[in-house]
Amino acid sequence: MFRQIDETTYASPQIEVADVAEAHAMGIGMIINNRPEDESPDQTPGAEIEAAAKAAGIAYVAIPVTHAGFSMPQVEAMQTALAEAGGKPVLAYCRSGTRSTLLWALAQARSGMATDAIAAHAAGAGYDVGPIMPQLDFLAAQAN
Fold first, then answer.
1. Would you state the CATH architecture of domain 3-143?
2. Residue ranges per domain, the chain?
3. What is the pLDDT at residue 67?
4. 138: enclosing H helix or E strand
5. CA angle 80–119–79, rounded 5-degree value
6. Strands 90-93 and 3-4, bridge-based pairing
7. pLDDT tens readout for residues 63-87
8. How many Cα atoms within 13 Å fall on the side-chain side of residue 97?
9. Among 65, 131, 48, 58, which Cα is nearest to 89's?
């Protein structure tokens, strides 16, 4: 269920409280929730995931992304969260894992990672960053 994007980042579809134990067993140090509350009636509320994460000693951050797209404050928040993880593995989730992967990609581009490397990492996890490649190129150019 957890797809590895790079050495320390995983993306996932919606997780349940029970999945937090699996994340803990894998050494996940932070869970990032990229799903807006009440997006779907069957989703586990973020507060329940947060409580389970904290009980397991895992940091929790909510950076909700709607289908309206990404904003620079969201990209910056993702960069900050990834930096605050201190090299510990991070699990980001949304409905399918796509928004989490795309937000990770935007944060990496803003940090200066080459866009071909970003695309390769995402593809290795089964995600396509093609739809946001112009934004990735722009952010990477600004970083370098």
1. Alpha-Beta Complex (3.90)
2. 3-143
3. 83
4. helix 133-143
5. 5
6. unpaired
7. 999 988 899 999 999 999 999 999 9
8. 18
9. 58
